[in-house]
Design a protein that fits this description.
Elements lengths: L1 H27 L7 H8 L8 H34 L12 H14 L4 H25 L5 H26 L5 H10 L7 H20 L1 H7 L3 H6 L4 H23 L5 H13 L3 H23 L9 H23 L1
Length: 334
């Protein structure tokens, strides 16, 4: 009993220590490396030997590292919430078409020659509109299970969005627009600024607060609807609030970073192996692990090659084999 209590209390603390460690590694690593002493001087506003350090740190690296923490944690907690709400471990944050809809919005913005801010706005609105369409269509399919209807409609609408993206890629200018579209769809943090973070932070906080405040109810919502109702839970209201919150987080992250896959799918699995299935501990732990994973991936993306690699390539290369290993391990346990 005592050992279990200590494990439950110390694991989150250990995750925070690991997150702080990789936070420092990410801040000091890159083509323009920094020492811990320089890092301390930059944070304390003390003079530094090379004046370029101020520009590199405050305008490029620090916003990027914060974005990795915010986006990684956001995708992870959204993935854990979706998997709990849909009672399906194969569900990811883009199951309702958020990423596909945001992709259509961003590609449309690039196709129309809009500014970066407008492209981000197009992506955010596109993600929300797509989820609204999925929800309305699923409501019409009353003869089927509500959760199953949402998933199936989300898959269908995502396919339609994928077709729209492909059409615009064919029509886009191959020398100017097409490279921008391709790079955005692969995801990345290279163009994120402090203004981008400030623009999505309030929306993400609106999404984070209900998920963290109502996470104890997610344990009840992971039961069958009849069991949850018998315990006095308003299933429809709570599920809607949690799904909307996770959708806001996902749409915000996709709007500024593009489509970064696999984080929201594999991090909840890792989290359950470490802290268990209790959402009271799972959601905060998922945020920490997601932030750690994206910090590591982004640091590798900008350091392992002469050119920066899109995050989508690295997350897929790491996430897919890991997910297959989880599936094989689960089968052996059974």
């Amino acid at each position: 009993m005592t050992t279990s209590w200590l494990n439950t209390k110390t694991k989150p603390l250990l995750l925070m220590v690991i997150l702080l460690l990789f936070f420092l590694i990410a801040l000091t690593s890159g083509k323009y490396s920094l020492t811990l002493e320089e890092l301390y001087r930059l944070f304390t506003q003390a003079p530094v030997d090379d004046p370029r350090s101020n520009t590199v740190f405050w305008q490029i690296r620090f916003p990027r590292v914060l974005a990795a923490i915010l986006i990684g944690g956001g995708l992870a907690i959204a993935g854990a919430a979706y998997q709990g709400m849909f009672r399906n471990p194969l569900v990811s944050p883009d199951i309702l078409g958020v990423s596909a809809g945001a992709g259509v919005g961003a590609v449309l913005g690039i196709f129309l020659g809009q500014s970066l801010v407008s492209i981000q706005l197009f992506a955010f609105v596109g993600g929300l509109i797509t989820v609204a369409v999925v929800y309305l269509i699923a409501r019409l399919a009353r003869q089927h299970d509500p959760i199953l209807s949402l998933v199936l409609v989300g898959v269908a609408v995502s396919a339609i969005c994928g077709s729209a993206i492909s059409l615009m890629k064919i029509l886009a200018d191959p020398y100017t627009q097409l490279p921008s579209i391709t790079f955005w769809l692969l995801g990345g943090l290279s163009s994120i600024t402090q203004q981008d973070l400030w623009s999505v932070l309030p929306i993400m906080i609106v999404g984070f607060v209900p998920l963290l405040m109502l996470r104890w109810r997610m344990n009840l919502l992971s039961l069958s609807d009849e069991e949850a109702k018998s315990l006095g839970v308003n299933v429809t209201l709570n599920r809607t609030i949690l799904i909307v919150s996770a959708t806001l987080i996902t749409a915000s992250t996709v709007s500024i970073a593009g489509i970064i896959g696999w984080v929201g799918l594999i991090v909840p699995h890792i989290t359950r192996m470490i802290v268990g299935a209790n959402f009271r501990y799972q959601l905060p732990a998922a945020m920490a692990i997601g932030a750690i994973l994206l910090l590591i991936t982004d640091t590798l993306a900008r350091t392992i090659a002469a050119i920066e690699l899109p995050l989508g390539i690295l997350t897929s290369a790491v996430g897919a084999p890991f997910f297959l290993a989880i599936l094989l391990q689960t089968r052996r346990v059974k």
